[in-house]
Specification:
Radius of gyration: 33 Å
Strand content: 5-15%
Shape: elongated
Number of domains: 2
CATH class of the largest domain: Mainly Alpha
Largest sheet: 2 strands, antiparallel
Distance between the termini: 113 Å
CATH superfamily of the largest domain: GntR ligand-binding domain-like
Strand order of the largest sheet: 1-2
Helix content: 55-70%
CATH architecture of the largest domain: Up-down Bundle
Order of helices and strands: HHHHEEHHHHHHHEE
Length: 313
């Protein structure tokens, strides 16, 4: 009896020892896990960002529509359970994005905006105001996008859209014939503006709102660049209009490949001309107004006239 008891006790002691070793092992693993594991900082969201997201969602879900007036700042602060400072921070962010606009005077307040190209471009302008932009960036984008744009436009363009582009090119040809080689600054920039419109009309003819907006935004930048760098030059304008006529004729035949090739040559020539002109007028860079509008500034004053010959570039 006593011997059996001793045997049982030994077995129990052995079992306890095994359990103890097992518990010690798992405690050791847990120690390593806790002490060696690295935690990443938690991402916190500011209350103003939550309010901003809430109003954005209401607009996207059409619970709030363009023209709708928001409650007063005091009422919204009470509804969201936040301070006026936090609420105004959210409204300011929405205003920068172009989702709301504030009106002063009787009947004023915060209203949901009509979302259009201008509000989107202003928002992008605010973002790009922190970047160091130049005309080279514009033409890198143009040379990538516009040949494909005109090729797509050749497939989708309507008869009415071809007529609008025809009117644009015809106006430029007639105007150039009137001024001949003695082109003044007013006529030069009028024709340059029409030339930019030519590219926008092609982008619109793709019936793709993303491409249309992209070209619209690029041309806005380009206007600032050209106002700073360009000087009245008959040959430059004449070659632009000639290129546009060639592209238009290929569009009429719905020849996307020819349109693409002609656009590549056209943009390459324009880029080379601006590079050569910039060397003579000083470095240009983009600056932004408080509304997010782009303007180019040059470190040197440009000459009033220049003699342009693309063959020498």
């Amino acid at each position: 009896m006593l011997q059996n008891f001793e045997k049982i006790k030994k077995r129990l002691d052995k079992l306890v020892s095994v359990l103890y070793d097992s518990i010690s092992f798992y405690n050791f693993i847990f120690y390593l896990y806790v002490n060696l594991m690295k935690f990443e900082p938690l991402q916190t969201t500011r209350v103003s960002e939550l309010i901003e997201a809430h109003i954005k969602r209401a607009v996207l879900d059409e619970k709030l529509k363009p023209g709708d007036k928001l409650p007063t700042e005091k009422q919204m602060a009470q509804q969201f359970g936040v301070s006026l400072v936090t609420l105004r921070e959210a409204l300011r962010a929405l205003e920068i994005l172009g989702l709301i606009e504030k009106k002063k005077g009787q009947g004023g307040g915060a209203f949901i905006s009509e979302i259009g190209n201008e509000s989107i471009k202003n928002s992008l302008g605010h973002y790009l105001s922190f970047k160091d932009l130049s005309h080279e960036h514009l033409y890198e984008v143009r040379k990538i996008i516009e040949p494909s744009v005109v090729r797509l436009a050749a497939q989708k363009i309507s008869t009415d859209e071809i007529e609008k582009i025809e009117e644009n090119v015809l106006y430029c040809e007639q105007k150039l014939g009137e001024v001949r080689s003695l082109i003044e600054e007013k006529d030069f920039f009028d024709l340059d503006d029409r030339n930019n419109t030519f590219h926008q009309l092609i982008a619109n003819a793709t019936h793709n709102p993303i491409l249309s907006l992209t070209i619209d935004y690029i041309l806005d930048f380009l206007e600032g660049c050209e106002t700073t760098l360009l000087v009245p030059d008959f040959n430059y304008t004449s070659e632009n209009i000639r290129d546009h006529r060639n592209i238009l004729e290929h569009l009429k035949r719905r020849d996307g490949q020819k349109c693409e090739q002609e656009m590549i040559v056209h943009l390459k020539r324009l880029d080379e001309y601006l590079v050569a002109l910039k060397r003579r007028t000083g470095k240009s860079r983009v600056v932004f107004s408080s509304e997010g509008k782009a303007h180019f500034v040059s470190t040197e004053k440009k000459n009033r006239f220049t003699n342009y010959n693309s063959k020498t570039l």
